[in-house]
Amino acid sequence: MRWIDLLRMSSGNLKKRKLRTFLTILGVVIGTASIVVMISLGLGMQQSMYKQIEQAGGMTAITVTGQDVGGMMYYMSYAPEEGEATKYVTDDTIAEIEKLEHVKSVTPSLTMRSMILSGNYYADIQLVGMTPEELERQHMDLVEGSRMPESNSASLELVIGNMVPMDFYEKGSNRGYWETQQLPDIDFMKDPVFLILSSEDYYNAQSGGNSGAFGSEGNAAPVKAPKKYVVQASGMMSGGIDTYHNGSYNVYCDIWTLKSFLQKEYRGKAIPGQPKTQTGKPYKFFAYTNAMVQADDIDQVEELSAVIQEMGYRVSTNAEYLKSAQQEFAMIEAVLGGIGAVSLFVAAIGIANTMMMSIYERTKEIGVIKVLGCSLRNIKQMFLLEAAFIGFIGGLAGNILSFVLSFAINVVTAHGGAMGLDSDISYIPVWLVAASMGFAVLVGMIAGYFPALRAMRLSPLAAIRNE
Q1: Cross-strand pairs, 319
Q2: SS3 state at 89
């Protein structure tokens, strides 16, 4: 019997019993959709992790941290830092690391606590100074009309994270978003914004101003108010306060402009957060919070990290974090996929039941085609094709349903923002669609195998006499 004849007979038998076929296929649809959607949730979290690692410098990045500098409000590291730092990260450090083998680039970074004032609002911020190259490597999604800060410019330009508005408080009442659930009425791209480089200096001045009586008695000296710089927001991260990006709480600027401003304002004095002697005098060198090293090959990251660590610095790499995270996500996807697979195996029982019922109803037909010379192999193939049809149609419809459910999940969770992710919470790649289709067909054929064997073993004469 030709394959075209087998296909025609298999599809025709399914059409004769439309309701039963539909209900059996429905079980496969639900099972396939369950597996795909469950696994897509794990893949969505994994995609978000990959995106954040890419924003943090990629797989070839090594974060080099020296002794504490600056004053960080928030700090996120993708891997635990190794080693104890005995040195500061300085310009000499940058030059020394640049000379190492397999180093593609080295860029310094400075993080410090600062303050922004605008209208009737103020906010403590985490100001992060980076080189233009490193800012570009962050892959920030900016709102329309935004741009990165210019390097070595006369004024300090800022890129404001989309969650920074939640850190603002109203002067006088000192009430912020968490008390009022209202964001400040500030257009960062148009309204005048003032920057105080050190929030510590601001609060010391406020305390000194409120304690003027003590200063007059000699118990405390008045503290001079820090200088306010008029700054311009050159850009702002896209998304609302519910959309998390890597660096959503940060304010970014050009590190060379920031360094120039700090050295001018604190000429002859210790810059806040910078190392100083026991007598309070500043050192001649300028220290950075960390340096981002890019290796020329991912295979050299581990060896290069060991060399830098021996130089007296702490190091962390995204590669270490990725290995452990991938193992965790593999377990999560296996558990989620296993939960969904239960539905598909239940559907397999339905397929087996449908095929067995079909054999009982077509016993006489099977006997006739055997007498007419149809081989046992063709009979088995016919029933396996019917089961495969059920699996294929159910898998196809199940994948369509999966895309609909995935879209709905992403819309409801506001494209991952409600879950603290940086991308869609549900992600369905092409390979998952192909794998689920193949799995559905395979389950269908396995479920139809034993009914097909039973059909092969029927006695032709007994089958013909069967009523």
Answers
A1: none
A2: strand
CA distance 193 to 365: 86
Closest Cα partner for 409 from 401, 339, 368?
401
Contact (CB, 8 A) for 115 and 122 = yes
Query: What counts of helices (H) and strands (E) characterise the chain?
Result: 14, 10
What is the identity of the amino acid at 319? A
Please give the backbone phi and psi of residue 198, each rounded to the nearest 5 degrees, phi first: -120, 115
Segments making up each domain of the chain, as ranges: 3-52+325-465, 61-296
Ranking 17-31, 266-280, 410-424 by mean pLDDT, the lowest is: 410-424
Residue-wise pLDDT for 375-389, tens only, equals 777 777 777 888 888
CB of 360 closer than 8 Å to CB of 383: no
User: What one-letter code names the amino acid at 408?
Assistant: A
Q: Which two tokens stand for residue 53?
A: 């690692």
Q: Give the ranges where 311-375 is alpha helix by DSSP (H).
A: 318-361, 363-371
Plot region of 239 (φ>0 → left; ψ -120 to 50 → alpha; else → beta) = left
CA dist., res. 398 & res. 28, Å (int): 7
Residues in contact with 402: Cβ distance below 8 Å, sequence separation at least 6, in sequence order: 32, 33, 36, 37, 40, 428, 436
Task: Tell me the three state secondary structure of residue 353.
Answer: helix
DSSP string, 196-208: ES-HHHHHHHHHH
Give residue 453's identity as a one-letter amino acid code: L
Per-residue b or e along 361-377, where b marks 16 or more CB atoms closer than 10 Å to that residue's CB = ebbebbbebbeeebeee
Contact at 8 Å (CB) between 114 and 262? no
Element holding 74 (H helix, E strand): none
Give, in order, the Cα–Cα distances in Å from 421 to each of 30, 42, 44. 27, 12, 9
Q: Which residue has the higher pLDDT, 393 or 356?
A: 393
* CB-CB neighbours of 335 under 10 Å: 12
Q: How confident is the model at residue 160 (pLDDT cuts 50, 70, 90)?
A: very high
Q: How far apart are CA 117 and CA 203, in angstroms?
A: 13
SS (H, E, C) 274-331: CCECCCCCECCCCCECEEEEEECCHHHHHHHHHHHHHCCCEEEEHHHHHHHHHHHHHH
